[in-house]
Write a structure and sequence with these properties.
Largest sheet: 7 strands, mixed
Oligomer: single chain
Number of helices: 1
Distance between the termini: 40 Å
Radius of gyration: 13 Å
């Protein structure tokens, strides 16, 4: 079991930036793929970005490609999501997730059902 705690959310104006962090503890050696998801009120959960840890391969939803960057910290127990050029449609609760699934193709699909461990989320609000 991997325990995940997100931080770094907040309120920003359109065009602003935020960096989300996800601190992992527990059986972190079992993680093979980690991802960021978001869910806005009344909308389905959306996979935002994922990273296949062994190779460092990263994957992004089209809606955030070129604006968001997923990365792993040097200590390997922290996941980041750098979000630039934020837009009102990025407003959502953001969740960090982890899976022990060792399939980089499936990792890249960033589907919530493939991830077993989840954090509690951090709110991101983008408005003028």
């Amino acid at each position: 079991l991997v325990y995940l705690v997100e931080s770094g959310g907040g309120s920003v104006q359109p065009g602003g930036s935020l960096r989300l962090s996800c601190a992992a503890s527990g059986d972190t050696s079992s993680s093979r793929c980690m991802g960021w998801f978001r869910q806005a009120p009344g909308k389905e959960r959306e996979g935002v970005a994922s990273i296949y840890l062994a190779l460092g391969h990263t994957f992004y939803a089209d809606s955030v490609k070129g604006r968001f960057t997923i990365s792993q910290g040097d200590a390997k127990n922290t996941l980041y999501l750098q979000m630039n050029d934020l837009r009102p449609e990025d407003t959502a609760m953001y969740y960090c997730a982890s899976t022990s699934g060792n399939d980089w193709v499936r990792c890249g699909l960033t589907r919530g059902e493939d991830f077993g461990d989840w954090g509690q989320g951090t709110q991101v609000t983008v408005s003028a």
